Amino acid sequence: MIICPSCDASVVVAEIPRLNEIVECGDCRSELEVVGVDPPLLALAPEVEEDWGE
Fold first, then answer.
1. pTM above 0.85, yes or no
2. d(CA 10, CA 28)
3. How far apart (Å, rounded) are the C-alpha atoms in residues 20 and 34?
4. Where do the domains of the chain lie, and which CATH numbers do they carry?
5. 36 Cβ contact partners less than 8 Å away, ≥ 6 residues apart
6. Which pLDDT tens digit goes with each residue over 1-54?
7. Is the Cβ–Cβ distance between 24 and 13 less than 8 Å?
8. Contact 32/42 with Cβ under 8 angstroms?
9. Chain centroid to CA 27: how far?
10. Rounded to whole angstroms, how far apart are CA atoms 48 and 45?
11. What is the structure's pLDDT at 40?
């Protein structure tokens, strides 16, 4: 388990997390990105923005 950077809850990830994998916190529902694998480390996932063709 890894700690959510948003709410400090424990987040369950795959046995072997993959770099850049997106997981969801079960408590606060934040989308989190695996930014480190040894040791496992999570960060808030960047939000995708629409450019609407600009």
1. no
2. 11
3. 5
4. 2-44 (2.20.28.160)
5. 19
6. 789 999 999 998 878 889 999 999 999 999 999 999 888 899 999 877 666 665
7. no
8. yes
9. 13
10. 9
11. 87
